Amino acid sequence: MAGTPKASLEKAGAAGTTAESGPQPRSVRVVLMALMITMLLAMLDNMIVSPAMPTIVGDLGGMAHLSWVVTAYTLATAASTPIWGKLGDMYGRKGVFLTSIVIFLAGSVLSGMAQDMGQLIGFRAIQGLGAGGLMVGVMAIIGDLVPPRDRGKYMGMMTGVMAVAMIGGPLVGGTITDHLGWRWAFYINLPLGAVALAMVTAVLHLPKKKAQGRIDYLGAVLLTVGISSLVLVTTWGGSEYAWSSAVIMELIGIGVASLIGFLFVQKRAAEPIMPLHIFRSRNFSLMSVIGFITGFVMFGAMLFLPLFQQSVQGASATNSGLLLLPLLLAMMAVSMVAGRVTTATGKYKIFPIVGTVLMITGFYLLSQMDTETTRFTSGLYMAVLGAGMGFLMQITMLVAQNSVEMKDMGVASSSATLFRTLGSSFGVAIMGALFNNRVQDVMTERAGSVGGQATEATSQPTADKLAQLPDVVRDAYQHAVTAGTHSAFLLGAALGAVALIAAFFVKETPLRGSGPADKKPVGDAEGDSAKVVREPVAEAV
Question: Where do Basic and acidic residues bias regions lie (predicted)?
């Protein structure tokens, strides 16, 4: 990377904010508070909106299009994620980040004002477009502000925000819908967003950039079409359309063709949306694989664990977020410890290995649950899985960012986020299909011809509904759910083994900003673009 003028270095040094030293602690805390609020906005939205869905349908109608309220948001978020990252690299992080917040808040206001289901779907797409830049912006700005060596101490904070969103989101959403109305499930974003906007504007000062070339519009279109097609395949496959249907096959064909075209365009574009040279870094490629698998198995677990506890263990659906406390608390605690150890020692290779081992162990234990398994026992199993996730959730982003040059921080952050997002979409779809097929088979075996009808009737069971079923049907359904989770969690363990193999090949490249390591070149393998990073990154006041 090109050197920086002496005056600029002196200015950055006075502010305590070089790529090697990072901002001073007080400045970092102020900026990170604003970033965590923004991160909470991105993660809370779907969690809060989900409990409001029945009320929304009752008010606006359009039950047949209800799934699009979520799908439109997910599609826009996934498709825009890599574009936001590239825009930040080209035109400056702060302005792009603030723009994404404004678009997200505008989409929130419009969604709350929607008068019919069509409007709500369109406005949710606008909201998702902004949301695509929120998480990427947070990760990329942290990458700019804090050297990788020091970044570990903040990993627990990010994991904690995720835990708060997953636990508190459904509870807050239900409370808001019951007492204020469903529109406030969207309006609640405004005060949080306003605080984030004010704080980021006031305390964050990033170097202005001038793009050297035009944005790769063709690449952006091809990537958007490719990602959208894949997300629609995972969303519709097995639910709206059969996996072998013409619609799904066409979407797969369009998606594959678009992504192949995208790869060709990236080789020739002056400013590619996703520069392929970042994948020459062995660590970056391995972290992309591990991140995809982590997203795949984590969101599958988040889907099926509450279902098992509600259907088999008789837990209340109202407190579904609380059922995941053992997993989330273990994940948060381990992430904090791993982050501090990384900061203190500069070592990180052991964490992906230990994390994947614990993930495999946790999924195997969860796959052994049956109708007699107690909540205490399942809680212990979840804690093992959560500990594994804690070692993986933030370390994958940390190593990915440390594997590229500072000029590619945005595309590295967006690519890592995109792989995890795609992994979650595939995980919910594939694990869901495996689960549903197994449930159908066991219901047929145990309940005969009544099995299929009973499965349809109890697709989202509560303890009260299960108690009203005939003993034979209830027993069959509980065994079917147990068998379904067994198959889904075994798949999670198998994929964890793939992640473990990838983790063994990670090379322990010194983290930037760690004393002698700050003079090390960026890159983790021979042939990488090895360049010393010595430029002012940010100024926080």
Answer: 517-541
